[in-house]
Specification:
This protein is an alpha+beta fold. The protein is built from seven helices and ten strands.
Length: 179
């Protein structure tokens, strides 16, 4: 994708990856009696596939990827296994936390996916959920955990938001310096 923009009289060109995604938005959904949630139509359209991979995310949420994006992240599983040092704590944690619990899921004809039991238990998802578009993947949260995670009155959250804002400000400034 090529996007051309004129800013302050200067021509800017952005060349995105083919197949790049722009998954955004926050939607409340309910887990049904068969442990399914309905993905918002806008996200399903942007995903452009029904074959997905779901795994444990950070902060006790779930991360949902297209198979294409998943393979891009972990690469060839056989090469990954042979390249990884089994004595490295970082490699073991990566496999234990992110790769091993992953499972394939499929979007059905009405836009639902089943949340596997082990992953529901990890994220504490029982009924009310929040589906969050996170640019290249989807995060699925228990509604109460998401509310606590985003609470600006929580001192830790406030410090993390301030740090993230400062980091973003530095990135924007560095891009402006390129002019």
């Amino acid at each position: 994708m090529i996007k051309i923009t004129i800013i302050n009289g200067k021509l800017w060109e952005y060349v995105g990856e083919s197949g790049s995604m722009d998954l955004t938005g926050v939607t409340n959904v309910l887990l049904d009696e068969k442990y399914r949630i309905t993905l918002p139509a806008e996200l399903r359209k942007e995903l452009n596939t029904t074959d997905l991979k779901i795994t444990q995310g950070e902060d006790f949420c779930l991360w949902l990827y297209t198979v294409e994006k998943w393979n891009e992240i972990i690469g060839d599983p056989i090469k990954l296994k042979t390249k990884k040092d089994p004595f490295s704590i970082i490699n073991r944690r990566l496999v234990d936390k992110f790769i091993s619990p992953s499972e394939p899921v499929f979007i059905d004809k009405v836009g639902r996916i089943v949340l596997p039991e082990n992953l529901r238990n990890y994220a504490g998802i029982t009924k009310e959920c929040v589906v969050v578009g996170a640019i290249d993947h989807i995060a699925i949260w228990d509604a109460e955990k998401r509310k606590a995670y985003c609470d600006p009155n929580n001192e830790k959250n406030a410090m993390e938001y301030a740090a993230a804002s400062e980091e973003m400000s530095q990135m924007i400034k560095s891009k402006m310096d390129v002019e």
